[in-house]
Amino acid sequence: MGSTSSLYAAIDLGSNSFHMLVVREVAGSIQTLTRIKRKVRLAAGLNSENALSNEAMERGWQCLRLFAERLQDIPPSQIRVVATATLRLAVNAGDFIAKAQEILGCPVQVISGEEEARLIYQGVAHTTGGADQRLVVDIGGASTELVTGTGAQTTSLFSLSMGCVTWLERYFCRS
Predict the structure, then answer these.
(1) N or C terminus: fewer CB in 10 A for the chain?
(2) Are 24 and 84 in a shared domain?
(3) Structure pTM?
(4) Closest by alpha carbon to 9, among 106, 88, 123?
(5) Same domain for 102 and 148?
(6) Domain Ppx/GppA phosphatase N-terminal spans what residues (predicted)?
(7) pLDDT in tens, 79-129
(8) Structural domain containing residue 10
(9) For strand 17-26 and strand 7-13, is the pairing parallel, antiparallel, or unpaired?
(10) Count of other CB atoms within 10 angstroms of residue 8
């Protein structure tokens, strides 16, 4: 698969789905080698006390085992794993994260809503290019980010604690 020093991975542990991107740097440009998205619905496992169910955690860990198979040739220092709203909220997030780090062999960073918004904007600005003004809205499983900016620079960013999974569970899945 090439020189390990040129391989990088980014993993997003979202509230609805987990994403992994593996790339290789070649002569200053980026080649995508692997892109995996799995719907794990982690937020659906939050109860009224914000504890993640064992079933939801197991869905997440099972996905991470799949990701780990693809990370074996990448140094841990070249893998970034971020966790978002559900793991910001969950009272037992530490249990999930400890096992996730064991499975992946690298640290998992729970990022703030503002950092999540900034990273979302950065990704959109990088892929669309240009110096135009833009509004970026990302509706996730447990949070929604709104970001304005010009070119690659954000001008304002917000993260709201409302997402498609948490609102579905709260307002439409009454037992």
Answers:
(1) C
(2) yes
(3) 0.89
(4) 106
(5) no
(6) 21-172
(7) 999 999 999 999 999 999 999 999 999 999 999 999 999 999 999 998 898
(8) 4-110
(9) antiparallel
(10) 18
